[in-house]
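Late entry, evening session. Most of the bench is empty. Finally got around to the prediction I had been postponing all week. Sequence below, unchanged from the version circulated by S.P.
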Amino acid sequence: MKYSGLTDEPKKIKAEHGNPGDFKVMQQFTSEASARQWEKRMYAHGYEQDKKGTGWKYGYTFSVRH
């Protein structure tokens, strides 16, 4: 599964998910409105919401294989 989310602390989120090899900070935002627009686009592209992040300054993605 592919996940995306928003956070102010990407290093913390990466560590909480076990440092996935494909974890990427995709974009840095200067406004919450633009961050929320990015978030909606990612969901439209098939990403699931990762709810661990707090804040909105960085948009990140990663995947989990079962």
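Two things to note before I forget:
The chain has one domain: 2-63.
The first strand starts at residue 2 and ends at 7.
Will write this up properly tomorrow.
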